[in-house]
Specification:
By secondary structure, the protein is mainly beta. The chain has a single domain, classed as Porin (Beta Barrel), CATH 2.40.160. Helices cover about 10% and strands about 45% of the residues. The protein contains 2 helices and 18 strands. The protein has helices at about 10-40, 65-80; strands at about 110-120, 125-135, 145-155, 160-170, 175-190, 205-220, 225-240, 255-270, 280-290, 300-315, 320-330, 340, 355, 360-370, 375-385, 400-410, 415-425, 430-435.
Length: about 450
């Protein structure tokens, strides 16, 4: 499995739920604090002399939807060329929209906040976190800010988790370090390997508990290209929540007490103009993790993942975002190490655990439109498929997923949204997602 959010389950339980929660909590609190500062009373400016009369032009009254259409039309008329894969002119790799090095990050801030969460795998619930956001080097206005935080969640299917993370960059964005880890108890349904659309799925309730850690360190070797080592470790116990249910003989082993450890590497190219709400640029990732008994793992297998995100604004109110992702595993792979379809950044509308196999290919596009005040809307559509090999992909087995969502801005400085998405898939599948940050 890869990235639903956290630990005992595997990396997919950490990345999809708790990482956005911690980031949203830290940065969202920061944005609210900044807004309160902006609202402090300012010194009154001297009144304008009577000899300089001011001319006030009456504001044109237009219906609300007419205003939105006019703004969209203006954006389209003034937008740059669509799909610019290269770096934004004058931009820095991963640079945030901060005006100078001497700004609000210099002193740092502490924040605490609750965040509602919902997804079709874990159900609905509440998460919370506390964090500190600051400049590792106050004189460095190129590197993204450093974020250190802790978070936790509890959902309606009795899943819970606690996690901590540290994400930093330094030396003018020459180096980046990211580490996340935690522990908890996850309940989900597993339908087996090689399930095809339209199959009468068997849903086995599985409980997984344990601890997980993932660390990666990359250095910039060219202007936009980063490369470096990765490490992952998982200690987990897996049991069937209903032992009386018969398990088909071709199912992967579901009762496990295992340790999985991997060493690997990551290659990344980052030309985005923001880490949190990109309007320009692209983000390409490739990672390879090698699990071996010689370094303490109970399984010998490899996991490869690649993704490419691209962003293009259409004026100041609209953004088009796209993502393509691939996953492949080889060797003696445990069931939680397979490629799982249904993760939010890859395809919305399906629960994780319904479709998984040794190969995955997914693509998704999203249109983002800012409306008024802090509100935005999005529309998205994607397709995905899993199979035992890329040569086994078939036209009839593609799974579509699409829908719409709402956003409310909780941090103006770096444009961090709280999002609610409604998605529909094939064969009556549907899902609602509530989380922090964008899906990809």
């Amino acid at each position: 499995m890869n990235r639903l959010s956290f630990f005992a389950y595997n990396r997919w339980v950490v990345k999809l739920t708790l990482t956005p929660i911690i980031l949203l909590t830290c940065i969202g609190g920061y944005g609210l604090a900044q807004e309160s500062r902006e609202q402090e009373p300012k010194e009154e400016e001297p009144a304008q002399e009577a000899s300089e009369p001011s001319e006030e032009k009456p504001q044109e009254k237009r219906p609300f939807f007419q205003k939105i259409l006019d703004e969209i039309g203006n954006d389209l008329a003034t937008s740059e060329a669509i799909i610019q894969v290269g770096p934004r002119p004058g931009g820095q790799a991963g640079r945030l929209p901060i005006s100078s090095s001497k700004g609000p990050y210099e002193g740092g801030e502490w924040f605490v906040a609750p965040v509602p969460v919902s997804n079709p795998t874990l159900g609905s619930g509440l998460a919370g976190g506390a964090g500190y956001i600051y400049r590792f080097d106050p004189a460095d206005d190129v590197s993204p800010p450093t974020i250190t935080g802790v978070g936790g969640m509890f959902t309606s299917n009795k899943s819970w988790a606690l996690a901590g993370m540290h994400d930093m960059a330094w030396r003018q964005d020459r180096f980046r370090l990211r580490s996340i880890g935690g522990f908890g108890n996850i309940n989900m349904d597993f339908s087996g390997k090689g399930v095809l659309p339209g199959d009468n799925q068997l849903r086995l309730p599985v409980n997984m508990r344990g601890a997980f850690v993932e660390t990666e360190f990359v250095g910039r070797i060219f202007e936009r290209l980063f490369i470096g080592p990765r490490f992952t470790g998982l200690l987990s116990e897996t049991r069937l929540n209903s032992p009386q249910l018969p398990v088909p003989p071709d199912f992967p082993e579901l009762v496990l007490d295992v340790t999985t450890i991997s060493l690997g590497f990551k290659v990344m190219r980052d030309t985005r103009d923001s880490l949190f709400y990109p309007r320009h640029g692209s983000w390409a990732n490739f990672s390879a993790d090698f699990y071996r008994e010689g370094i303490g793992s109970d399984f010998n297998y490899e996991q490869y993942k690649a993704s490419f995100n691209i962003y293009q604004n259409l004026g100041s109110h609209q953004v088009i975002a796209g993502r393509v992702s691939l996953c492949g595993v080889n060797g003696d792979v445990p069931f939680f190490g397979l490629c799982y379809l249904g993760q939010e950044e890859d395809l919305r509308g399906y629960r994780v655990g319904a479709f998984q196999d040794e190969r995955l290919l997914a693509a998704q596009a999203e249109y983002r439109l800012q409306l008024f005040w802090r509100f935005s809307v999005v529309g998205f559509f994607g397709v995905g498929q899993v199979a035992s090999g890329f040569d086994q992909f078939k036209k009839a087995n593609w799974l579509p997923g699409g829908g719409f969502g709402f956003r409310i801005l909780v941090a103006r400085e770096n444009h961090i949204n709280l999002r609610v998405d409604f998605a529909w898939g094939r064969n009556g599948n549907s899902a609602t997602y509530i989380n922090g940050g964008e899906a990809f």
